[in-house]
């Protein structure tokens, strides 16, 4: 089974990359400091601050993994012409007025491109 690539514009790719840098840098440092501070409160079994910080760390690391995967498996699609579809595999390269038969899990259907945003 081949891995599917997520089509992203350069702007979308850069936004994800910036978010990843923020999470891996300053945000991760904040969470590590919160865990360190909470540990100083003593007994970890009943330490609400510690458990909250560890939970936040888990969520942060999960988001980091998700972003890394999306960036590694993405394909940047250039948007050069505002009259041509550039994202959506069945419609790639089609123009306003073109019709295409789309194969979907529940059957085929025909799409006609009326406008592009």
Describe what you observe in this structure:
The chain has 117 residues and is an alpha+beta fold. It has two domains: 6-76, Helix Hairpins, CATH 1.10.287.180; 81-117, no CATH class. The protein is 47% helix and 15% strand. The chain is built from two helices and four strands, in the order βααβββ. The protein has helices at residues 10-39, 48-72, and strands at 6-8, 74-76, 99-104, 107-112. The strands form two sheets. The chain has a two-stranded parallel sheet. Strands 3-4 form a two-stranded antiparallel ribbon. A hairpin with a 2-residue loop joins β3 (99-104) and β4. α1 runs antiparallel to α2 (48-72). The longest helix is centred in the first third of the chain and has 30 residues, at 10-39.
Give a brief description.
Helices cover 47% and strands 15% of the residues.
User: How would you describe the shape?
Assistant: elongated
Largest sheet: number of strands, sense, barrel closure: 2 strands, parallel
| Helix amount | 40-55%
* The CATH top-level class label of the largest domain: Mainly Alpha
* Level-2 CATH architecture of the largest domain: Orthogonal Bundle
């Amino acid at each position: 089974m081949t891995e599917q690539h997520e089509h992203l514009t350069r702007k979308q790719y850069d936004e994800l990359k910036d978010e990843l840098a923020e999470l891996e840098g300053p945000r991760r440092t904040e969470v590590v400091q919160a865990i360190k501070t909470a540990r100083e409160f003593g007994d970890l079994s009943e330490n609400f601050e510690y458990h909250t910080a560890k939970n936040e760390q888990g969520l942060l690391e999960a988001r980091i993994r998700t972003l890394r995967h999306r960036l590694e498996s993405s394909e940047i699609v250039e948007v050069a012409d505002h009259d041509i579809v550039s994202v959506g595999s069945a419609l790639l390269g089609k123009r306003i007025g073109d019709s295409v038969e789309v194969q979907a899990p529940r059957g085929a259907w025909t799409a006609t491109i009326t406008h592009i945003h």
